[in-house]
Amino acid sequence: DAKTTQPTSMDCAEGRAANLPCNHSTISGNEYVYWYRQIHSQGPQYIIHGLKNNETNEMASLIITEDRKSSTLILPHATLRDTAVYYCIVRVVDDYKLSFGAGTTVTVRA
Amino acid sequence: IAGITQAPTSQILAAGRRMTLRCTQDMRHNAMYWYRQDLGLGLRLIHYSNTAGTTGKGEVPDGYSVSRANTDDFPLTLASAVPSQTSVYFCASSQEGTGNGYTFGSGTRLTVV
Question: What pLDDT, in 10s, does the model give residues A14-67?
């Protein structure tokens, strides 16, 4: 898997949008961008994924730059329950070795 | 609710003892995985299975074995536990070929003393 770079930590205010950046400058053409999060003491939770088009679901939006070298996960209205470690991962579909890096620790403050 | 069930939730185990961590999924996913998570080291893949009857080694397979006799179950066995196997263990599954994400269980916290 291509390497990703994320900020170590970030804070955001409750009710505001949280924008989580991820750099993946060596991404290959057949690699998708995946986002997961892990709330303290729980198993990781899948959020969203995309190849090159922007994606939105009930949890978040994923914006991928045209050159695919970076992406941003957007939590539109952050709540205290969104406090978690967020992982940005790039992988080829059917590559069984999903590799988690250190992620970004996001703290939502009231 | 469809998902993954892991058992036990937590366990204290004497070194040298044998232990099997259980994992069952009800989503009929073809692929299953075992990860361990340690502070400062993140999530590391132990073993995986891309379909019933086949298994593969991940990043840290030593000291662990798995089997995949059917689609739903993927037990992880520690033949002779050592203190370095103290960790939180997560089982996951996915339907490979769809691009969809993994579903993870709630984890088993194992302490080897």
Answer: 999 999 999 999 998 889 999 999 998 899 999 999 999 899 999 999 999 999
Inter-residue contact B19 to B84 (CB < 8 Å): no
Q: For residue A96, is pLDDT > 80?
A: no
Of B99, B101, B107, the CB nearest to A43: B107
Q: DSSP characters for A25-57?
A: TT--TTEEEEEEEE-TTS--EEEEEESSS-EE-
* B61–A contact, CB cutoff 8 A: no
d(CA A74, CA A63): 8
Rounded Cα gap, residues B46 and B56, in angstroms: 9
Q: In terms of Cα–Cα distance, which of A87, A74, A82 is closest to A24?
A: A87
Residue B65 to residue A98: CA distance in whole angstroms = 19
Contact between B99 and A49 using a beta-carbon 8 Å cutoff: yes
In angstroms, the CA B5 to CA A59 distance is 23
Q: Decide: helix, strand or coil at residue A64.
A: strand
